[in-house]
Amino acid sequence: MQQVHFQDLGLIDYKEAWDYQEQLFKTNVDAKIENRKAEKIIVPTNHHLLFCEHPHVYTLGKSGNESHLLLSEKMLQQKGATYYKINRGGDITYHGPGQIVGYPILDLDYFFTDIHKYLRLLEEMIILTLAEYGIKAGRYEGFTGVWIDPENPLKARKICAMGVRCSRWVTMHGFALNINADLDYFNNIIPCGINDKQVTSLKKELNQEINVEGVKEKLKTHFTTLFKAKLI
Questions:
Q1: Burial of 149 by CB count in 10 Å (0-12 exposed, 13-18 middle, 19+ buried)?
Q2: Domain 2-231 maps to which CATH number in 3.20.20.60, 1.10.10.200, 3.30.930.10, 1.10.150.20?
Q3: Calpha distance 129→50 (Å, rounded)
């Protein structure tokens, strides 16, 4: 059972959280390089799981299309939002208050070296958490993330976006689950480059404000079970 350092960073500026992720990520990658040179483990790697919320921000993955941001610089300022091009996979997405953003920084050499399995387990963590609220969610074929009514193209709506980076089997970035988020901010982008699907939230689906801390506890429980890990 792998030990994973858990931190809830609260409401934190996107760039500050990104820099912190990069620091933890680089420490692990550098350790693996040293261990490979020595042909033995001389510097251990550490696993981390970060939870946080961000002030309004749009992020564009390295394979994304800038035209999917529908706002000018001036309009961004008017909406109190920022914009970053970042080094994860995927296209454009929105982060903001009322959304749980999760950043697992794991050395998958200690779990499994399969990035597709990693993404499916993150999705399963979300699916199992939503099931505790009576919501049946699943996967939409051909896309990452978690969807409600994925079997019906006319009703399918996305509740959780995902985008990760992986180097030397060390992961960073992760998922964004809409709890009480202001969904109007998604109208300013083509989310994940998909222009014919809606975005939803737990609050919208249940028609009531949701206790975010309660959702976090459920996510942590399912994470430890699926990844056979212990949070410390």
A1: middle
A2: 3.30.930.10
A3: 17
Catalytically annotated residue among 52, 160, 166, 192: 192
Residues 6+ away with beta carbon under 8 Å from 121: 226, 227
Structure tokens at 204: 């919208």
Q: What is the pLDDT along the chain (232 residues), one digit of tens a residue?
A: 999 999 999 999 999 999 999 999 999 999 999 999 999 999 999 999 999 999 999 999 988 888 999 999 899 999 999 999 998 988 899 999 999 999 999 999 999 999 999 999 999 999 999 999 999 999 998 888 999 999 998 899 999 999 999 999 999 999 999 999 999 999 998 876 666 678 999 999 999 999 999 999 999 999 999 999 999 9
* Catalytic site includes residue 160: no
Amino acid at 167: S
The residue extents of the domains of the chain are 2-231
Report the 10 Å Cβ neighbour count for 65.
12
CA–chain centroid gap for 159, Å, is 11
Nearest residue to 9 via CA among 202, 174, 191, 189? 174
Under DSSP, the state recorded for 192 is G
> In angstroms, rounded to a whole number, what is the distance separating the alpha carbons of residues 82 and 164?
20
Q: Which of helix, strand or coil describes residue 101?
A: strand
CA–CA distance, 68 with 190 (Å, rounded to integer): 5
